[in-house]
Amino acid sequence: MSPRRDGPAPDDDAGHRVVCHLDRLLEERGMTLVELSERVGVSVVNLSVLKNGRARAVRFSTLTAVCDALGCQPGELFSVSPERADSVG
Predict the structure, then answer these.
(1) What is the enclosing helix (H) or strand (E) of 88?
(2) Residues 21, 25: Cα–Cα separation, whole Å
């Protein structure tokens, strides 16, 4: 019996165009990922996954804590890149 998998395959990013701007926000505030991790109580590894665009989901509590620590709104942390013309249809 094969293991059960819920949701898309790990490498399936179809429709995913969300971009995380954590790098820019950290740089603008002169803050390191380690410092942010200490402030929000989220591991450096998990913040790195988020920063590098590999996160599949973000809890609202984490999003709130990150935004509070950075003094930003969710729309400053994330954006949706425009849909490519060749993928429409």
Answers:
(1) none
(2) 6
- The CATH number fitting domain 18-81, selected from 3.20.20.150, 1.10.260.40, 2.70.50.80, 3.40.50.720: 1.10.260.40
Q: Rounded to an integer, what distance in angstroms lies between the CA atom of residue 81 and that of residue 18?
A: 6
- One digit per residue, pLDDT tens: the chain, 89 residues? 544 445 444 455 556 799 999 999 999 999 999 999 999 999 999 999 999 999 999 999 999 999 999 999 999 999 999 987 665 55
Domain limits, the chain: 18-81
